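Appendix B, record 7
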Amino acid sequence: MHPAVFERRRGIKPSRMSPAVAPGWRLAFDLRGGPTEPSFASARPDARRELYGTLYDVTPADWARVCASEGVPFGYLAVPVRCKRLDDGEIEWAYTLAATPGPLRVAVEKDEPVPSERYLGYLREGARLSGLPESWCCYLDGMSRDPSAPLPIPADDSAWAKSRGA
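Structure tokens (predicted):
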């Protein structure tokens, strides 16, 4: 969700970025990581919840690069999701990433590993840079972190955000 990941790390410049919500989905940390990143975020169906994020309009080649960098189909699956753009209310279908069933996926929400502060920092800053609702940003701010995992976002990513006027 952090724009710096798309633009700087992946070299992708989306033609459009829009804050959006996907009813019937939740933010999950159900993909196990390792010692420095205990878990990774994914989308998980949940009729009682909503998942906020950013829609990126990208070329098919850029989408293929995103999927390759995120480990599709080994760690994640690209799944269709119906969502609403928050800037214009338009309803559309998009793709999100869900953890692939298998030994790295955590099946029960209460057993999901806690993400690192660095990882949560990317989500929190990305949510604000993307214009997601303050209620969602507060939800992310209130999440626990793994105290044994590495700390903050590297300064160069915060500098990137400032250079973009955020």
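Remarks on this record: The chain has a mean pLDDT of 86. The first helix runs from residue 3 to 9.
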